[in-house]
Every structure is written in structure tokens, then in C-alpha cells.
Amino acid sequence: MTADKILAHLEEVFCPEDLGRALRGAEMSKAKILKNAYIAIKDGKILEVGEGDAYKRLTNAATELVDLKGFVATPGLIDAHTHLVYGGSRENEFSMKLNGMEYLEILAAGGGILSTLKATKKASFDELYAKTRGLLEHMVVHGVTAVEAKSGYGTDLETEVKELEVLDKLGKDMPVELIKTFMAAHVIPKGYENNPDTYVDEVIEMMPTIAQKKLAEFCDVFCESGVFTAEQSFRILTEAKKHGFKLRIHSDEIKNIGGVQVAHDLQAVSAEHLMVVDDEEIRLLAEANVIGNLLPGTTFSLMKDTYAPARKMLDAGMAITLCTDSNPGSCPTANLQFIMQLGCLMMRLTPIEVFNAVTINAAYSVDRAKTMGSFHTGKDANITVFDAKTLDYVLYFFATNLAKEVYIKGSLAVKDRQLV
Ligand code: NIG
Ligand code: FE
């Protein structure tokens, strides 16, 4: 077999295990790290990874050889939780937050997600497309090759569909893979404060349309004090399951109101945030194999000290990922590398645990492990090359974009830190 392209002489290559499910607990502290390594690509897929000169037998005169001495590589990073499509921005709330106003207080006063609803309804398809494309481009430049993204700034069917169609078109127009989540249950819209269950009914009524148009693969709910109760979340997700959606739930971001039990009982693929979970809930998540999508950038941006207890989660045998949560309110960023660094600095995860979190485990979290998340033969050749001589350096040297090259399905998407 001859390779089309070989990335050769890499100082280190991170090779996660793929056990057919997300890595749990102590499994997350293991990975193969190849030295003086190569990655051979054929037809946009991984042909082989290995060390030293062994790649030479895979070459002929037509093989493109890329010398990456002085750099390291990982499977293309995957961001398994974002809210990318929205109108406007919320820097007007920044000084309120700095003056001590809480996220949920801003929301209760009609700001927060509610203000982004207005801006998103007003924005045209083309405006949303251009803005979301810009965010995605930042993400790819920072090493990301697949992104989960949610609706949820519409709350009416028309705007929810508009958001998901924007994502759909971006997924077709850009090399980055997009995984879409329907999240009309993101906020109780104005006018439903006294009858939130009527809005729950409306969310459920939107599901057949979203499912028929194949506009989303997952359904998510913001289970939070002042937003959706655990009972309402259970109802919404139970209906979503009937329509064939895979499930996620925003739980325990600020208050603990029982979202974990819902994730456990409905066997959600993932539970998001988990900043204020207790030990028994960690046990429940581990028992039900619910992946914890942890979002330390949100804790950072909300200026809290309640980082999700990632070490406890691993001790209990849970699987975790790290994601940006990119959104205009609680985490305005497009830099997954910084989130990974917070995983080390604020959650005490090791570099190997962090790289497993954003590669193989994130691939399971978005249900794409058959095609991405590791360097096993036959998976898409999604590769992030970092300007670093060791993998540890990528997490140690923080808040600076170190992604030098990004390959998606074997083609260069980023070269010398610029989009191709
Ligand atoms: O995950 N918590 C709900 N959704 C986002 C915030 C959305 C917003 O503030 O616009 C989150 O933190
Ligand atoms: Fe979120």
C-alpha cells in the first residue's frame, strides 16, 4: 500500500486508544505517544502511524512527504459543546458581571439569553451565516476539526430552523464537521413566565419538523433554576427520544436541581457543565455511562471557583470531555486550546487526560468515533499539528495559539496558522 501523503519526523504523536466507547476513569490516563513519528494518509484516511523510517516502505515517487521535525501532532481536536449561531453580542453585560451581578440575575431581568433571542430573531440567514462562519474559522485556526453546535436562540420554530439551517449549510460549505443539536429548551421566552409548561408543549411540537428536515441529531435542555425544572427536562427529553434524537442535558451549571437523575434515567449521551454535582450524582453518571462534557471556560468567564470536580469524576470511573461552550454570555471564546489548558491548571487533569478528552472521548460524545478521534487505520485523516516539541508544551504554554497546521480528511485546512 502506498501513501498519498506522509507527515514525517514529528517529535511526538498522541495516539489515543479506541475501546469502542469513551475512555473512563483511569483509562483516560493512558495513550500511546510515538516519538520521531509519522502519519501516513491515503484517500483522506489514516493509513498508518508509526516511528522512525518505517514510513519509507509506504512511499513512491508520487507520495508527498511533509517534514514536521520540531512539531507534535494529535488527532484533530473536537469541540463537543458550543452555541455558535446567534445574533449580536453581550459585552454590554460585561460591566454588570464585573460589578457582581450574577448570570441568572441578568437573565431574570430580561437580559442574558433573552437579549440574544431578540438579536437572533432579527438577524437574516446571511448575517447569521457570516457571523457563525467567522467563529468557526477561529475554531479551525485553533486546531479544531469537528464542532457540535446548538440552536436555542430562537424559541420559535422559524428561528430555530434558521439557526440549524445555517449550521447545515456551513457543514456543507466548510471542511470542518458540524454536529447539530436542537435546543429550543434553552430559556423560558417572554410571555411564558407564568405558564412555562405551555412553552414546553411548544418545544415538543417543534420536534417532528426538526426531525423530518433532519436538522439535528441531538436534543438538549437547560435544566437550571429559573429555566427548565428537572420534571420539564425529563418530559422534553423523553419526547425527543421518541423522535429519534440522542440526548444531552445542561445540568448543574449554577444550581443543582436534579438534572443528573434525568440524564441517568434517560441514558443521555452526555451531561453538560456539572459544576455543582455531588458525589452520589457522579456515581449515577458513571453507572449510566453518561459522558461529562465539562466546560471550564464557563466557570472562568462566570468568575466562579466551582470548576467541575473532574478528578473526582475520574476516580469514580466517569468519562469526560472538555469543550468551549462557545456562546455570547457565559463563555465568549473560540479557543479550545485555552479550555484544555484550564483543564490542567484549574481541574488538575494531566496532559494525557486532556488530549484524550478532546479527541477520542469528544468523538464519542458527538457520536463520530467511527470516523474520528484517533489515528486508527481507516478513520478520517483529521490532524492538528502544534508548534511545540512536546505534547506537554501545548498545555503548559497557555492562551497562545500553537496550532500550526490542521488537516481535515487529509487536506490542509490551516497552514502556518492561516486558513487555507
Ligand atoms: O451553556 N447555559 C445555557 N447556555 C449557555 C449560555 C448561553 C448564553 O448565556 O447565551 C451555557 O452556559
Ligand atoms: Fe452550553
TrEMBL record:
Localization of this protein:
Cytoplasm
Keywords (A to Z) from UniProt: Cytoplasm, Histidine metabolism, Hydrolase, Iron, Metal-binding, Zinc
Q: Where does Zn(2+) bind?
A: H81, H83, H250, D325
Q: Tell me the pathway.
A: Amino-acid degradation; L-histidine degradation into L-glutamate; N-formimidoyl-L-glutamate from L-histidine: step 3/3
Which family is this protein grouped under?
Belongs to the metallo-dependent hydrolases superfamily. HutI family.
For this chain, one GO molecular function annotation is:
iron ion binding
InterPro entries associated with the record = Amidohydro-rel (IPR006680), HutI (IPR005920), Metal-dep_hydrolase_composite (IPR011059), Metal_Hydrolase (IPR032466)
Give me any GO biological process, just one: L-histidine catabolic process to glutamate and formate
On cofactor binding, the record's note says: Binds 1 zinc or iron ion per subunit.
- Tell me the residue numbers annotated for binding Fe(3+): H81, H83, H250, D325
What organism is this sequence from?
Treponema phagedenis
**Function as written in the Swiss-Prot or TrEMBL entry:** Catalyzes the hydrolytic cleavage of the carbon-nitrogen bond in imidazolone-5-propanoate to yield N-formimidoyl-L-glutamate. It is the third step in the universal histidine degradation pathway.
Enzyme nomenclature, EC number: 3.5.2.7
Annotated binding of 4-imidazolone-5-propanoate, by residue: R90, Y153, H186, E253, S330
Q: Which reaction does it catalyse?
A: 4-imidazolone-5-propanoate + H2O = N-formimidoyl-L-glutamate
Question: Boundaries of each Amidohydrolase-related domain copy?
Answer: 73-392
**Pfam families reported in the protein's UniProt record:** Amidohydro_1
Protein residues bound to N-formimidoyl-L-glutamate: Y153, N327, G329
Which protein are we looking at?
Answer: Imidazolonepropionase
Q: Its domain of life?
A: Bacteria
Cofactors needed by this protein, per the record, are: Zn(2+); Fe(3+)
Q: Name one GO cellular component term.
A: cytoplasm
